[in-house]
Structure formats: structure tokens, C-alpha cells
Amino acid sequence: MIGPASTGFVTGFALILAIGAQNAFVLRQGLARQHVFWLCLLCATSDAILIAAGVLGFGIIAAQAPMLPQIMAWSGAIFLFVYGAMRFWAAFQGDYALQLAGQITRVWATLATGAAFTWLNPHVYLDTLGLIGAISTQYNMSIDRYVFGIGAILSSYVFFFGLGYGARLLAPVMQSAQAWRILDVGIGLVMWALAIKLIS
Questions:
Q1: Domain count, the chain
Q2: What is the pLDDT of residues 143-182, one digit of tens each?
Q3: How far is Cα 124 from Cα 42, in angstroms, rounded to an integer?
Q4: Is the pTM for the entire model greater than 0.85?
Q5: Helices (H), the chain
Q6: Domain extent at residue 24
């Protein structure tokens, strides 16, 4: 069982390692130290649901709706463009008093944004329902297949909680409005690049 579990863990970790919209948002919240636990739990659990669905073979459902990927791509691109614009606007205004003072925003707003980054991203479905689901078929429907899925799910929890709480190591760097401005510009660029990639 160690083999399938480690394969699932490495596969899942590799797929979510690249800096994307969801990861950039978790990183920013980790730096701000705002609702990190609940956001990481939301992202990891969402991944767990999709990975479980992919391993159990429900990826076939997506194939029955040929228009779904295009609808998801445009919805995700619009959301990424709007959020990127918000980050550029925040950088332009340069008002980071709340971040520097450590003032907490509402948890539901953070979770709603995190959910949008997760469920409106077509690549999440490709990675979980598609790739992880496809790789898991090498184990047929044996116990090894479920162990593979558990390994992949565990990687999501390790990654997101590691990213969210690990971001605090950068806290000493983020003690100025200029540092937050640079971060927001960088995140804005990532969001717009991903939006263009989704619709291209």
C-alpha cells in the first residue's frame, strides 16, 4: 500500500505545486494572517471531493457535457480578470493600513473568494477528475486505487496548510506598504495571465 499511497501523494502534490490563482490567494491570506485555517481547509477539502470523484470514476460525467469546459473557462476567466483588476486597483491606491495593522476582514468574504478560485477553475477539474482519475485506473477497483486516492487527498492538505502557514515566514518582509503593493501587482499579473490562458 505504500507504493500507491506515495504515488498518489507525489502526483497530487505535483499537480497543485505550480503557482496558480488559488495558490496565490492562499499565499496572500497567509501573509495577511487572515482566516488561514478555514481557507486552507476549504481548498483542501474541495480538492479532496474532486479527487475522490475522479478516483471513483465520475470523470465520465464531465465528458457527457461538452459545453461545460467552455462555460467554466469563460466564467473562470471573467472572475480572474475582475480579481486581478482589484489587486491592481489596490496597488494603485496603496492603502495597506489594514494589512499592516493586522485588522481582520470577514471570514465569509474570504471563503467565498476561495471557493470561486477553486470551483470556477477548469484546470482543477482537469487535474482531479481527469488526470488523477485517469492515473488511478491503473489500479483497477482494488484497495490500491483507494489508497492512491487517499495519498493524493493527503497531498492537498499538506500543500495548502503548508502554503498558508508557511507564508508567515515572509511576514518580516511584508512590513511596508511597498511590499504589499509589489505583491498585489504580481498577483494581478498572475490572475490576468491565467485569464488569458483560459480563453485562448
A1: 1
A2: 888 898 899 999 999 999 998 999 888 777 766 777 778 8
A3: 14
A4: no
A5: 2-17, 21-32, 36-55, 59-63, 68-93, 97-101, 107-119, 122-125, 133-136, 143-166, 177-199
A6: 2-59+67-199
